[in-house]
């Protein structure tokens, strides 16, 4: 059983963990694709998004996340034979300001804030996260973005930058995330304890946990459960 008393800081992935990014993505891409006579189901859209995003983030040089999202839309056009308009190319990045937290996120963060330092480690630009920070309604002790790290998770670089800024022993930091690929494997490889927030069954299919290095210390279905466990006597 995880002993929450040993931790002083919780680090969080943001999109998919705190913010409902799947509905945000689908709210943009589904009508965009339909406008170009392309009818895909939700799972197909999300899988293609993940494929295109990972390819772009693994590039030989860093590009801002706004540009990543622009190129993701372009790749949908290339895959399905249409040319996105300028507004469509910017539509994903422009929509982030409207992406909302999961229903349990805000209250859970407020509860956790009473006991822990809260830190963000997110694959995003500073200005884009600023929109999300307003929705999350808590003050984070540190915010580490891909723009600051000049790299994208699962790069070790993003986590090392966070660890340096938090300035606590590794055994006092607990990383909380929905993505095994982007977060859990890398965090564990650096010696951090991890919590996998497995919000949806589809995530279980997409985040196959095989090797020991990818096994989280704790799995929870949502942040409400994590907050309750951390407060239990």
TrEMBL record:
SUPFAM superfamilies: HAD-like. InterPro entries: 2-HAD, HAD-like_sf, HAD-SF_hydro_IA, HAD_sf, S-2-haloacid_dehalogenase. The keyword Hydrolase applies. Pfam families: Hydrolase. Keywords: Hydrolase. NCBIfam families: HAD-SF-IA-v2, HAD_type_II. This is Haloacid dehalogenase type II. It comes from Nostoc favosum CHAB5714. The lineage of its organism: Bacteria, Bacillati, Cyanobacteriota, Cyanophyceae, Nostocales.
